[in-house]
Amino acid sequence: MKPIRSLEVLPNLPPELECIRELAYNLRFSWDHETVNLFRRLDKDLWESSGHNPVLLLGLISQEKLDEAAKDEGFRIHLDRLCDRFRQYMRSESSWYSHQNKPRQGVIAYFSAEFGLSESLPIYSGGLGVLAGDHVKAASELGIPLVGVGIVYQEGYFRQYLNADGWQQERYPLNDFYNLPIVPCKEKDGSPVTISVDFPGRKVYARIWKVQVGRVPLYLLDTNIPQNSPKDQEITDALYHGDSELRMQQEMILGLGGMRALQALGIEPAVCHMNEGHSAFLGLERIRMFMDQYKLNFAQAREVAASGQVFTTHTAVPAGIDKFTPELVDRYFLDYSHALGLSREQFLALGRTTTGDALEPFSMATLAINMSSKINAVSKLHGVVSRKLFGAQWKGVPEDEVPITHITNGVHPRTWISEEICELFERYLGPKWSEDIDPQIWKRVEEIPDEELWRIHERRRQRLVTFARGRLRKQMQAKGALPSELKDYSEVLDPEALTIGFARRMATYKRSTLLLSDPERLASILNNKERPVQIIIAGKAHPEDKPAKGLIRELIHFSRRADVKRRFVFIEDYDMNVARWMVQGVDVWLNTPRRFLEASGTSGMKVAFNGGINVSILDGWWDEAYEPQLGWAIGSGEVYDDNDYQDKVESQALYDLLEKEIVPTYYDRDRDNRPRNWVARMKAELIALCPQFSINRMVREYATEVYFPLFTRQKLFIEKDAQRAKEMAAWKQELQRAWSGVSIDSVEAGSPEQLQVGDELKVTALVQLNALKTDDVSVQIYHGQIDSYGDITDGEVIPMKFTGYGKGTLTPYEGTIKYFKSGRHGFTVRVLPHHADLSSPFETGLVHWAAEPVNVRA
Q1: Which tens digits make up the pLDDT trace of 386-435?
Q2: What is the DSSP secondary-structure string of 241-296?
Q3: Which of 137, 262, 381, 460 pairs with 560 at a CA distance of 20 to 30 A?
Q4: Where along the chain do its domains lie?
Q5: Is the pLDDT of residue 7 over 60?
Q6: 10 Å Cβ neighbour count for 372?
Q7: Considering only CA atoms, which of 334, 346, 392, 341 is closest in space to residue 365?
Q8: Same CATH topology for 108-409+705-714 and 740-857?
């Protein structure tokens, strides 16, 4: 039965408790232990059953309990103290950002398809969303003027349960937005703020919700409103649909709709940050807006838009990139492309690597690259992988010069550490330890008594065991287990045994079953009476990923073996809550991806902040973090063509580490039953890894290396009616027209075939510029040692100087190579476009190399 009217009913808070509403509607509670303790104090059981959602808790709690709390002097003092601290935090104008020498004030709009802020707001699926949530939290702590833009999903990501055979099943409970810590954005007349996006033959409308994350607002779009057809209302139902057309619709809402939402809210961002390619359509919408605002053509507006845009890639394989067929793009964007003044081919070329290939799909990553001034990967090794993956975008550019940098991910420590560890850090490192990335501050960890650190860690492991037992009992109750079976699950795991954790998105490349390569050897390790080991596993597979579901089933079947079932358990329905318990309580965090396929990974960083030890393949962040005194590396980074052989080698290496290194070190105890060598590793990890892999370090790097330079660039390109952008667009047009006639006519070098270290070699070249000016190009020597394939490796660039006009139309250049290493060396010469306003020498994609039959004379 449909209602004839709807209205919102709010909790009736006593006046003395009114401030608690402010605390409930700000996600700052998700990283403030004392605020969580306040909500738990209201009703501990309800706090747990509400999914740690303070808004739902306030909606469900009895009026009697609220009135009791209002009369409780201790509770009121606790609340008043927290409210004063919260309001001071929100008002404070003193922050890291406020003390920076910034080019100009401006707002950064951070777009992501998912945000993992808290288990109480289930609009995330995994690492990408949690990273986005941590990014927003750090921006709040650092005082960076950032706003988030995303989608609020009616179903969120699925809830996981396993059937009797261990096969993953999915449930999709609906999110009740009015019982979540979000509020609708409203016009002055009280009506909801809505925007529209043109779809084939219709408009699709979206309303805007706001989540306050500390000082940072996050705006989320929702198509489930009466203005839309029932089918269009479903666009924002669930995260990461497998249907390609629905994915495109979601990404149009995120990118096009997200920019229109900011406009409707009166926010004009100076910088737009695309967290993965899902939001890349925002670049097109920004171009359209600048065309309208400054009366520019597409090329001019593109310069303005790109001057303030950055793309962060998180994928390591082509399969991780959203791609759409040309026919699907035509259906949704043909009219839009015409409005931009582009032909169908010109529009499709924005998302293609090979522009002449009519069958090539439209790549959202390629579109994001073409819309950005800066592009970055998320770890040092991922930078290498990304330059290889996307190198074809810059034809003729050596792989190591492809303009993709890296900013290694970090984690928001206060979200992920236990309350006891937080208090320990505040005592020994100071109250602002989480904001401080100074390695000298973290050296104070050495002052923490071993027994104090170990006592806290033991307590967290014991609590993890208690949590796991409770979750396992609930899992078995849901499957109809007998009382005798439930009793068995109350006795699984040992609070004192070496505890290994493995929890992440279940994908085949993460190899969750590598541990099971030799099940008898693993069982022997687990069941050692003097030195027992136990393993806790959690993780979800994508609903359509049957091979990954098969891995979960394999893990479940092994866990049911009579000889291991008390030492090998799988916790269903992995989410941020389960993750927090695990990273706070395990002794060892295991990570087993195929090398080069883990872009970064962040769960191991969270474990490190809690004093856990990492054991991992040298991939992602661990490749740059690993040192022998910190944790353990599985293998030495070798990669074999045969995956089965790779798995065999690395599984044996893992078993060897467990038997010969990890287990003996853990159980090597002193007279007080403390593992001194183990605690030394815990401290070494805390000192070395915490300042390096803090989200505050990461976001500071984004600010200083990306946001601040783009503030300056955007200002230059937008002032004086975008005059600089107009000039750049015109210059690029002339460059494209003349480039086919640019050539290197001849190269001359000294005559000796052998040189000694310290010798110099003078190189001259005659270049045909074809109507370009000398200021329009950069002529360079590219030299280095030659590998076994005859290629220059680790090339060094030496600028060549213009030496005066030569005869006819040829222009002479010269440069000098100085040799500092022995061996076989080679060099060549190249011509690149040059302009002071280029974001990179390779921005235009044009480069001309000296090649046969060029006249090379010795």
Answers
A1: 999 999 999 999 999 999 999 999 999 999 999 999 999 999 999 888 88
A2: -S-HHHHHHHHHIIIIIHHHHHHHTT---SEEEEESGGGTHHHHHHHHHHHHHHT-
A3: 460
A4: 15-91, 108-409+705-714, 444-693, 740-857
A5: no
A6: 25
A7: 392
A8: no
